[in-house]
Hints:
It comes from Paramecium primaurelia. By secondary structure, the chain is of the alpha/beta class.
Amino acid sequence: METCQLKKPSLELSNQQIITPQEHSAIMRPGLAIIQVGNNPSSLTYVSKKIALCEKNQIYHELYHFPESISQKEIIHQIRTLNQQGSIDGILVQLPLPSHLSRLEISNEIKLSKDVDCLHMANFQNLLQNGEDNDIIPCTPAAVLHILDTQEIDVRNQNITVIGRSQLVGFPLSVLLLKRNARVTICHSETTVQEHVEKADIVISCAGHKELVKGEWIKNGAKVIDVGITRIPGTNKIVGDIEFNKALPRVSFITPVPGGVGPLTVSMLFKNLYRVWCRSNGLKANIDELDDELDYAQNYQF
Ligand SMILES: Nc1nc(=O)c2c([nH]1)NC[C@@H]1CN(c3ccc(C(=O)N[C@@H](CCC(=O)O)C(=O)O)cc3)C=[N+]21
């Protein structure tokens, strides 16, 4: 039988059916397909991190790295093939896509049960409806919620300022925080930011705009989660949205960049993959055991 580090969580067949050894080894291995288009330097880094984690956990994976010039039709054809492929449980389309491709149309081709990033409109609507009870929570919002939980940060009745309203991060995260009964203010490129940071008990910045949030804006004792990542051209360096060193003396908690939300995002992808894999094989997911297995703490530095 194949060994798989992710086998440790107890796999209970929900209907206690008896399966053959062949069936058993097929279901012991979750499979992930990654679709990447072009050579965006950040995407190259992120995809290589996802692949490294697949290898570490012996997760079956296929990378489809297409040139920038690929047509919408060809990508959709690939997704339809992967939708049918039994060895693939999760399909991830690495964003952003080049501007000649329709992200919406491409996302909506992903089979609902294989959509590990909650990109399909129907899954996204379910998320807005169900909040954290949804089957899939997009990876970056899930990473932020994980930080709030492990730091025991109770958001009820807290002023949270979220900076950024993207479909993958700021928008769904704001809804999830609302459902946790926070008072959420969403800032974006058409709003002022400073006054909303100044009144915030918790600042969550997902703008991807280098040091947009000045340290002196932050209320004493506030908690700060920095989701933004900006690459400094010509270097390997990345920085966050927050002036980290200036914020540090004021905050009661802050996540760094690098070493903060980013690496956790990748862990959350695997949590989602494990969930869809269990679901498609009639297994009961034991997420607590998976949390131990993925050992998130080794990846971040706060
Ligand atoms: N469909 C889709 N799903 C995603 O989840 C998705 C995406 N598209 N597009 C881009 C964003 C960004 N993202 C990150 C992954 C890893 C790090 C990460 O590991 N960061 C390290 C360092 C990375 C480096 O050295 O550049 C850190 O912050 O310490 C960050 C960000 C996933 N994203």
